[in-house]
TrEMBL record:
InterPro entries: Ig-like_dom, Ig-like_dom_sf, Ig-like_fold
Superkingdom: Eukaryota
Annotated Ig-like domain residues: 41-151, 161-258
Protein name: Ig-like domain-containing protein
Family matches, as SUPFAM superfamilies: Immunoglobulin
């Protein structure tokens, strides 16, 4: 009986000790978690600027990553392209700035600092996923990471795509011919619209080739030819006009490039109406002229007839 009592006391004591240890473990974990959360909350990236697209002819591109340490010490700022580190800034190191060889990356180290890196001598291989990583000093070494995609392109000239038409004034029954061209890399896809409706493929003729330049730009041309019907002038949005629009889409470029031409109805154009008005005016003038001649003759005849009667 006594042994059982001791056993009971021992088991109870061990259970209480285990509970205390478990509670202590939970407490340590909770405190650590609170410190971790506090570390995350006190490290903020204020600005992260990586352009979505850049022109390969651009001389310098800034990638910006500004932060607020909230009173903590900065350990390092690191930049990565496609998971490969290419730049590191560590305020406690000498030198503070380091550059690591990475495909497609050329840096202006004089301009680069803890907030920005400057890319120069752009290549198509400069395209990729760019990541900025900010980390605090010990003992916790918390970090914050943001990522954005950058695409290097040979952007088309301003005003692209370019449209050339054979006539700006046309009549039903005539052929309307237009050509749409653009140069870029990646290559553009061109689409023609007639009064908002996509042109049928049998009306189109494509030309594609690569230009012999450093940027390896792709030339794209899409010719449009169709016979104008009277119904083409009945578009409610552009009455008595034909609206032809060329649309260009380029991979990795969010913007859709468009250009349009308005072709007037010959029979409704100001020049045609003025010419017709002049014709009608001349005809009426001739008619009126004849009328006055006849009136004059009739008046003269009346005088001739009436005048002798006055002598009687």
């Amino acid at each position: 009986m006594l042994c059982k009592s001791f056993d009971h006391i021992g088991i109870t004591s061990m259970a209480e000790h285990g509970i205390n240890n478990l509670q202590g473990s939970y407490l340590v974990t909770l405190i650590g978690l609170l410190f971790y959360i506090q570390g995350i909350q006190t490290l903020k990236i204020l600005e992260f600027e990586v352009p979505a697209t850049v022109n390969i002819s651009q001389k310098l591109v800034e990638l910006r990553c500004t932060f607020d340490m909230e009173g903590r010490n900065l350990f390092a700022v690191k930049w990565y392209k496609d998971d490969a580190e290419f730049y590191r800034y560590m305020p406690k190191m000498d030198p503070k700035k380091q550059h690591f060889n990475t495909t497609g990356i050329s840096l202006d180290m004089a301009l680069s600092d803890d907030n920005s890196v400057y890319l120069n001598r752009l290549q198509y291989s400069t395209s990729g996923q760019y990541r900025c990583e900010i980390s605090t000093d010990g003992p916790d070494y918390h970090s914050k990471v943001l990522t954005k995609k950058l695409s290097v392109m040979a952007l088309p000239p301003i005003g692209s795509p370019r449209i050339v038409v054979n006539k700006h004034v046309i009549a039903a029954g005539d052929n309307l011919e237009a050509n749409c061209t653009i140069v870029s890399n990646p290559a553009a896809t061109l689409i023609w619209y007639i009064n908002g409706e996509k042109a049928e493929s049998y009306l189109l003729n494509r030309e594609e080739r690569q230009l012999p330049d450093r940027e390896r730009r792709q030339f794209r041309s899409l010719a449009l030819k169709f016979n104008v019907a009277k119904s083409h002038f009945y578009d409610p949005a552009h009455f008595d006009k034909i609206n032809i629009t060329c649309q260009a889409t380029i991979p990795n470029l969010d913007e859709v490039l468009t250009n349009a031409e308005m072709v007037n109805n010959l029979h409704k154009s100001p020049g045609y109406v003025a010419a017709q008005g002049s014709h009608y005016s001349g005809a009426m003038s001739t008619a009126f002229s004849g009328f006055w001649v006849r009136v004059l003759l009739m008046s003269t005849w009346s005088i001739v007839v009436i005048s002798p009667m006055s002598f009687y």
